[in-house]
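Retro notes (design track)

What went well: tokenization of the new backbones is finally stable.
What didn't: we kept losing track of which sequence belonged to which structure.
Fix going forward: every design gets posted as structure first, then sequence, in one message. First example under the new rule, 126 residues:
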């Protein structure tokens, strides 16, 4: 079974000097239609309760996260590690009932807390 690190290496190789000509020429913008298509295929697999296909489509979606992150790294914007760090920070911050500050909540209370924290975050951004 392959590892996450191997997948990262595959994406780096595809974008490398000796990689795939199509993958090497892709940009954030050129990949948008493919990203939307893959997200739609994930939704379709969920709707059809096709768990085997869902696994495959989630892999395709993960590939997009990795190739977008690789392009960003090449252009000096951010790295995959920054994406991982950012989402970990956000999930911990938006779940204080799980990671610290408050006690157990109902699903509705959890969703309301999430929305309130998100609203506070957005109000702090310029």
């Amino acid at each position: 079974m392959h590892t996450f690190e191997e997948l990262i290496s595959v994406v780096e190789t595809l974008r490398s000097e000796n990689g795939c000509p199509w993958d090497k020429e892709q940009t954030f913008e050129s990949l948008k239609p493919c990203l939307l298509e893959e997200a739609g295929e994930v939704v379709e697999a969920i709707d059809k309760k096709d768990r085997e296909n869902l696994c495959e489509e989630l892999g395709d979606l993960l590939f997009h996260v990795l190739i977008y992150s690789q392009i960003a790294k090449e252009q000096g914007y951010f790295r995959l590690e920054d994406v991982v760090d950012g989402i970990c920070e956000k999930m911990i911050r938006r779940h204080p009932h799980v990671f610290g500050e408050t006690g157990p909540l109902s699903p509705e209370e959890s969703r309301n807390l999430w929305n309130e924290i998100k609203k506070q975050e957005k109000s702090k951004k310029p």
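Added context from the reviewer: Residues 94-126 form one domain.
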